[in-house]
Amino acid sequence: TENLWYICVICCVTTAVPLIQSVIVEITDETVTCSSQNIYPIPQVSWATDPPSAQEALENSTTKTTDHKGLFTVESMLRILGNVSNYTYFCSVISADKTQIWTASRKNQEDITQEEGYALSIPCIAPHSLQNFSLTWTFDSANDPIVILRYDNRTRHSFNLWEGEAELDQDLLLLGDGSLVLFKPEREEHSGTYTCTFSGLQSRHIIQTRVNITVSRTDSHRCNGTGPVEGGHHKGLNTAASCIIRHDGADPNREPAQSDAQDELLRSVPNADEDSSVTSLPDTKEEEDEEETPLDGSDGLQPCNLERDGFENTEPVLCIP
User: Fold this and answer.
1) Model pTM?
2) Which of 264, 250, 243 is nearest to 318 (CA)?
3) What tens digit of pLDDT does each residue of 82-101 get?
4) Proportion of the chain in helix, strand, coil states, percent, rounded to 5
5) In terms of domains, do 99 and 155 share one?
6) Bridge-partner residues for 61, per DSSP?
7) Which stretches are transmembrane (predicted)?
8) Are residues 204 and 228 in the same domain?
9) Domain total for the chain?
């Protein structure tokens, strides 16, 4: 009989274990939510804060569900600790074999209010040192976020939709500071929600800031408590004798220490319309050559005409020499 040899071939089927692809952290008024999906086997979820919090303060509610493929989705919820802007919240999703840890963080900063026309820096500091990362800034003013700036530290390539309006400091970026500088923000164009996102290897860190740009205050003279001169047309301008303008151009409103004394001086000066006994100025040449004597009680205040923007004030105004 012939010897028969049987060959047994064992075929091994290798099943790829789904990796943790991303972790999303979101903040509401009362809770922080961390979620990740399409994972197998069931992962673990861990919470931390900066500044650090006691472990009992980080008690959370975590749910785990599976889809028709047997892949897991995890969602963990944590209560806000104190003021929402006081902490940065970190959520780590850890694979069952501990070979993969994916970490995401979220911080909602205090709102920033800034007068328009003045440079503004919106802070964005990475929570820890990042070797290879990309930074993205988005702006949202009407629930329609747009990417305004993107930077990749590996290629040093950058994209800036607001070129000439905003920029990053390249040197500070190397230290993990991705703060955005707005040169001259305007109320209509730059008020809204700014979000900066650091993305690195198995990590994502998000910082969100609400910015409110207010209308610029005009710097103008005020007379008798009236409002500022608008548009250069002397709207509502009171040119009565109680308006004091200094010869050196200084704004009397910026010298509160002298305002009371000046008001007292004005009250002591007779009004030409009410008191006809006020002595008129000398009209002889000999008297004109002599040094003018201050009015009694005026302490050196002299009458003068005030001309502004081509409009001459013909009513009596007292000027400080």
Assistant:
1) 0.64
2) 243
3) 999 999 999 999 999 999 99
4) 10, 40, 50
5) no
6) 77
7) none
8) no
9) 3
